[in-house]
Amino acid sequence: MKFADIQIIFDDNPISRSYLECLKQENLTKNKIIYLNKKSILPNKFNSLINFKKNNFYPIQFLKKKEMLFFVDQVEEFFELKRGFVKSMYNINNLSYFENIDYINNNSINSKEIVKYLFKNNHNYYLNTTKQILKKIFDTNKKFYHIHPGYLPKVKGADASLHSIDKFNELASTSYEMNRKIDEGPIIVRTKMKFPKFKLNNIAQYKLRDLYRIWFSFVDPILRVSHLKLLIKNNIDTQDIKNISYDQESSNYYTFMNDNELSRTFNKIFVNI
Fold this sequence. Notes:
Radius of gyration: 18 Å
CATH class: Alpha Beta
Distance between the termini: 46 Å
Largest sheet: 7 strands, mixed
Strand content: 15-25%
CATH architecture: 3-Layer(aba) Sandwich
Number of strands: 11
Shape: globular
Number of helices: 9
CATH superfamily: Formyl transferase, N-terminal domain
Number of domains: 1
Order of helices and strands: EHEHHHHEHEEEHEEEHEHE
């Protein structure tokens, strides 16, 4: 199965929104979107609007600031995306471009509802956009893929894009087939690059948590979507597994960064203007 044809398990967040925009720009709007929707008495489409505003609250607010638009322009230029990609990816109406959306009335990827759905679905290959740990869903014997913002197995776990900069002075991404171990499935494609320095006007106005939210609103998801674009452009197949043994390389598992680590890393990344 080519990544250009893969179905998307959609949990509304900056990552899933970046993938949606990518598919839209690549004219892949017939790809099925499997939307994990919180149980509600509200109609699916109305509930999805609530999810969008709640789960993308910070990037939506940041994009109202003029200086943030200048920052976003730098991110798009570095990752060679069309100008306006980021602003467009947070368009509330983007789901309406897609012809095949199935709503699952549970936002847990291991729920009985999604498991039942996948057992009935003839499709076997799915790109996961959630941050949840997959467990019960593996009982379906389907194939699940993920784009990790680190060079596996060197950087596994949480905040991988930031740990890559802090520990190895690089940005990286890896597409792989998921299994029951975290970030240890068979690898498809790995990339790494030197990280940029981004100019951010009046940086003193932003607290450490704000910078963290900016990173995961705009840079981390764009790092992942640039990898997805690479998979689509190069016509990569889900079966293009590389014979890479974790025993042949250093393997490091990282947790969420503490404030000292964040401060050190953001001092590497952001330049005040």
